[in-house]
């Protein structure tokens, strides 16, 4: 017997849900590849990817198969036990990265929470309780828990929740001199996104990350890379740190790791991991068989030359065509980013109007994102088909034409 499906509409959101979101006026009900259909049957092309989550698009057959197969076997057993999907996915992540140890959880915020707690615990155990300060970048985003939102460099998200967590400093991104001036023997960690996502799709300069690595080594601080948005093939490498050739001590991953199923991971070395001894940290659902089975299917597909080379090729195509469009219609001053995490930066005349571009795109049947009010963000499926790229860009051009004429 199946649960009774009650008819619902967008108006139910305003009646039943906490008003911390302002969802679109339509309700998506089905997705296939890079296309989505709403309640009225209208079809939209998806260049948003669930905010850089749907790394293989919607309902990818391999992910559906992995989830369905695991759903017949074991859903949840708790961390009183381990399970086979957890062990397989952990091994694959270790084999593919700098890491030797993995901690599984459910969201990017939790992966960052674990990373920041580990950094503070390591410093506490090695150097005493005075070494607990964390340096992060302005305009960064690291999650919405009280700790992670304070590490994030956007006061609009952290203000109004009582006293701030102490020992957190923010410096301008890509400014090595500022980092040099801020770091001290009290610093336990420097936390950076290799590509600032929410802050405007801003990639780090190689010299900046190299300099951060050297400063951390010099001051016995840990370098933490938040790759929640840039990881799992999004940059054209499995993780963006590989693109830069700079290895962190701790890395957080989520979003694309489950291709749409909630899962996150903190990756680190054995030497650091031992500071999280039994009982020091945990999560009920972390590493559950369903999530890890899907995550394993994702890494098996994404971590292949075929897919990663495909990301680079698609990236060039998007970049060239968006730049040309922006010039034709006088909206963008540049297109920046890495792989299939791209940002079209609005020119001075259009600054602050990213939401208008989003709305115009939806009117033409296209889903895009914003990253700050000045940047239109694109995070499509890594395996998006050529026909969907062409049609989606054609719809985007119609949206820009309509805006520039208006």
From TrEMBL:
EC id: 2.6.1.11
Cofactor: pyridoxal 5'-phosphate
Keyword Amino-acid biosynthesis: yes
Chain positions with N6-(pyridoxal phosphate)lysine modification: 255
Membership in a protein family: Belongs to the class-III pyridoxal-phosphate-dependent aminotransferase family. ArgD subfamily.
Misc: May also have succinyldiaminopimelate aminotransferase activity, thus carrying out the corresponding step in lysine biosynthesis.
Name of this chain's protein: Acetylornithine aminotransferase
Organism: Pseudomonas fluvialis
Taxonomic placement: Bacteria, Pseudomonadati, Pseudomonadota, Gammaproteobacteria, Pseudomonadales
